[in-house]
Amino acid sequence: MKLLAIFIMMLGMSAAHAGSDKSAKSENALWKEECGSCHLAYPPEMMSAENWQKLMGSLDKHFGANAVLNAKDNKLILDFLTHNSGSGSVYNSASLRISDTPWFKREHRSISAKEWVHPQVKSVSNCLACHGSGGHGLWSEHDMHKQDGEAHENHNHS
Ligand code: HEC
Ligand code: HEC
Fold it and tell me: What is the pTM of this model?
């Protein structure tokens, strides 16, 4: 019961924050739940509003998965994503993948093709294989598990 109360309180808090200023670590309970169930909830700041729009408009064909939401939830999440999106062409990719945007490629230019397919990484989309668990380390350089450009740390025990 106590946990439920805390959860409801958190929901209320994030609702109160919705529409507030763009922050480096945007939170939204619905987004976290719906978009964090199959993979980490990719941060809105990392892609453009146009791309989020297209992605949310084609959730039935979502990178080989079906991630369809009801219209109400879709709109709430889209609003959250576009409100906190990255701006500028470096946040665009035709594939609607963050990992194909120019900013992403620039930040990861030191990583070799071999490292991307390392058994502990498997996919470029598997951010947490190299970045701090829980998504908290994603933006801070000092949290990054960078060792000679190799992904040694793996918090994703799958
Ligand atoms: C049913 C499972 C599922 C759900 C739910 C889901 N996704 Fe995905 N998503 C995938 C799969 C599978 C991929 C492809 C991963 C890969 O290539 O390794 C993917 C990839 C992505 C990518 C591209 C990652 C990259 O490489 O840059 C984005 C962005 C994304 N999803 C956003 C979302 C958003 C936003 C939501 C919530 C509306 C969502 N996803 C919900 C399964 C899902
Ligand atoms: C193979 C390991 C690996 C994977 C997978 C990976 N990254 Fe990175 N990432 C790095 C390394 C290493 C750096 C630092 C690059 C440098 O300084 O040369 C970095 C840098 C970054 C930066 C810029 C540094 C900062 O703190 O601002 C961001 C943001 C980032 N990654 C996000 C992501 C996201 C989002 C994903 C998943 C879509 C991802 N990364 C997948 C290894 C990885």
Answer: 0.80
Find the 36 Cα to ligand 1 centroid distance in Å: 9
* Ligand 2 proximity of 40 Cβ (cutoff 6 Å): no
Domain residue spans of the chain: 28-97, 110-158
Under DSSP, the state recorded for 86 is: B
Nearest CA to ligand 1 atom 22: 97
Q: Is the CB of 20 under 6 A from ligand 1?
A: no
Q: How far apart are CA 106 and CA 142, in angstroms?
A: 18
Measure Cα distances from 68 to 2, 26, 57, 60, 77 in Å.
32, 22, 9, 5, 12
Return the amino acid letter for 127: C
- Is the CB of residue 73 below 6 angstroms from any atom belonging to ligand 2? no
pLDDT tens-digit series, residues 17-30: 444 444 445 689 99
CA-proximal residue: ligand 1, atom 35 (nearest): 35
Residues 52-70: tens digit of each pLDDT: 999 999 999 999 999 999 9
